[in-house]
Specification:
mainly beta; 2 domains; four-stranded antiparallel sheet; 108 residues; elongated
C-alpha cells in the first residue's frame, strides 16, 4: 500500500511523517526519510516509528446489556465494532473484563 503524507513532523529529525499500512494490515506513522535498503537488508534514514493501535470514539448510545455508554472501535487492522465502554482485557489471565457486549460492523 502507498504511504500517505501527514501534517505532522518527526520528533527526532523534523522531517514530515507518513502513514503506512503493512502487508498484514497494521498501521504505523514513520519518518518520511526512513527507507529500506533491499540489497543490504538494512533500514536507512531516520528511525522514528509509531505503531498505531485501535481508534476509539464514544457514542451517544447505551449498552443493551449493562446500560453504560457504547464506543465505536476501529481496530489496527481496520475492523469495526460497537462495544461497551466498560469492556477490557486481562492479559495475564487472557480473559475479558467488564461487560462483554460487542457488535461487529460489516461494512463490505
Amino acid at each position: 500500500m502507498p504511504v500517505q503524507p501527514l501534517n505532522e513532523t518527526c520528533p527526532l529529525c523534523g522531517s514530515s511523517l507518513v502513514l503506512q499500512v503493512t502487508r498484514t494490515g497494521k498501521r504505523l506513522k514513520k519518518c518520511s526519510t526512513s527507507k529500506w535498503d533491499k540489497e543490504n537488508m538494512v533500514a536507512t534514514g531516520c528511525t522514528y516509528i509509531e505503531w498505531l493501535g485501535n481508534e476509539v470514539k464514544e457514542l451517544d448510545e447505551l449498552c443493551p446489556q449493562c446500560g453504560q455508554k457504547l464506543v465505536f472501535v476501529t481496530t489496527s487492522k481496520g475492523k469495526k465494532m460497537k462495544k461497551c465502554s466498560t469492556a477490557g482485557w486481562n492479559a495475564e489471565f487472557r480473559q475479558p473484563t467488564g461487560c462483554t457486549y460487542i457488535q461487529w460492523i460489516n461494512d463490505r
